[in-house]
Write a structure and sequence with these properties.
single chain, 470 residues, alpha+beta, 2 domains, six-stranded mixed β-sheet, 22% strand
Length: 470
């Protein structure tokens, strides 16, 4: 491709058409079903689907066929096909549902308040993952404008990813014949270590979670009377969690949640750490706080190939202003355990339940209720043509080499597709770089990276056809 004209064309298209549509998308609180059980009644998801459908039909992509597929009782899915040369198929993926609001937004920002500040478009969902459909279709349109052939493209935009994609397997099954067998899968829902080059995601962690509840009394009792007689439910909770995680350093000490890290992934982590320098600087640490280690490669492996526990919510604890001298009868926490690629989510979820519920201290009532389980994913070996395409596109549009690194998050769709299409090549990438803060406050889309990444997708599609369509 002519890289200079490609960048000009896409930059104008994004500024004139894509960014205004993303601004309107950010305004809509279309939270994923896990965070909005009444999503159908609220109608926000439907509003986004209608807007995306309208934009896609008017995007100027020749031959585009679009259908909003609706299975009973499930979130909708936008299914698109663009005819191409040759017999191969490329599957491009994104999602349109969002995480909930989260507190801590900057005073002038908000989750449903789009703010364009220089190169950053702030607001929930722009980077995770509203931009994906626009990047996919504008990449295809650019190829058409430059007269460069590409394979048949199938674009899938789901509405359940932030809830674990529990609806997606049913759609993939229903659309199996229409999708075919892709030889290349492109997913634009991942991260980047910086905004200076193309980052390719080589693996994704899995995730299991649930609610851990501890009950010791039927009702609260004066703490002066009960302390020393009734076991504290919070202490029991700590004891149970330490079966899983070492409090002094955060290591997951329970067996069954680790895998052996492949040597080439360790080597890639070292390269990525050298490129990034201070790996932890992208996080908003409070003054004086240090990361768990100063070894950048170990930090990358910790967040990509090792299990890790997070407590993301709590119940049974009154607000501090209302906390009297009462021994609490019960409490609960939301447990989130990231799993390394290769650790089966279903098996791990059962093991976690058994670990937390067995032999409860003081015979307290302990219950762990799993809510979801997703396995991780490790990319298959990369074909030489794809390695070359990624490198040349990064050099052409970023001016620096491509970097390979695992991601700590979970995209359930990848593990599913990896099993269904074992011979496919995968390109997993995204725009979630330093401080972009997906799921948290002050989320933003870095627009120059989104534009350059779109150009890289064009290059990969073009080289894929040269490889498979000749």
């Amino acid at each position: 491709m002519n890289s200079a004209s490609a960048q000009r064309f896409l930059s104008e298209l994004w500024d004139d058409s894509v960014v205004p549509e993303l601004v309107e998308y950010i305004r809509i609180p279309n939270k994923s079903p896990a965070f909005d059980p009444d999503w159908q009644a609220h109608g926000y998801m439907e509003e986004v689907v209608r807007r995306f459908e309208r934009w896609a039909r008017g995007a100027g992509v020749r031959g585009l066929q679009l259908e909003v597929v609706r299975l009973p009782g499930r979130t909708p899915l936008i299914y698109m096909e663009v005819p191409g040369a040759g017999e191969d198929t490329v599957l491009l993926y994104g999602h349109l549902d969002k995480q909930p609001e989260m507190s801590g937004w900057r005073e002038d920002l908000g989750p449903w308040k789009p703010v364009l500040d220089g190169d950053r478009l702030y607001g929930r969902g722009g980077a995770d993952d509203g931009y994906a459909m626009f990047a996919s279709l504008t990449a295809i349109r650019l190829l058409q404008e430059q007269g460069i052939p590409h394979a048949r493209c199938v674009v899938i935009i789901e509405a359940c990813e932030e809830s674990g994609s529990f609806d997606l397997p049913f759609y993939i099954e229903a659309l199996q014949e229409r999708i075919g067998s892709p030889s290349l899968v492109i997913c634009l829902d991942s991260g980047c270590g910086n905004y200076d080059q193309l980052w390719v995601t080589t693996s994704l962690r899995g995730l299991i979670g649930g609610v851990l509840e501890v009950e010791v009394m039927r009702e609260g009792v004066h703490s002066g009377a009960a302390s020393g007689i009734a076991p504290g439910c919070f202490r029991i909770l700590r004891h149970l969690l330490e079966r899983l995680e070492a409090a002094e350093d955060g290591r997951i000490v329970a067996p069954g949640f680790h895998v052996e890290i492949p040597a080439h992934r360790i080597a890639q982590a070292r390269v990525a750490a050298a490129v990034l320098g201070d790996v932890a600087r992208k996080f908003p640490f409070a003054q004086g706080v240090r990361p768990v280690t100063e070894d950048g490669a170990e930090l990358i492996l910790n967040t990509t190939w090792r299990p890790a526990l997070a407590i993301t919510g709590a119940g049974g604890l009154p607000p501090i202003a209302n906390a009297g001298n009462v021994a609490l009868p019960a409490n609960s926490v939301k447990v989130s355990l990231r799993l390394p690629p290769g650790c089966d989510g279903g098996t791990a979820s059962q093991a976690l339940k058994a670990l937390l519920e067995r032999d409860p201290p003081y015979n307290a009532r302990v219950r762990f209720t799993p809510d979801w389980a997703a396995s991780g994913w490790n990319a298959p070996a990369e074909a030489p043509w794809l390695t070359q395409a990624l490198e040349s596109s990064s050099q052409a549009y970023f001016g620096k080499p491509a970097v390979y690194m695992g991601e700590g998050g979970t995209i359930p769709f990848m593990a599913m597709l990896g099993e269904r299409f074992p011979d496919a090549q995968f390109v997993i990438t995204g725009v979630l770089g330093p401080h972009s803060n997906a799921h948290g406050p002050n989320e933003f889309l870095h627009l120059p990276t989104a534009k350059r990444l779109t150009c890289c997708v064009c290059e990969v599609l073009a080289q894929h056809h040269r490889q498979t369509g000749a």
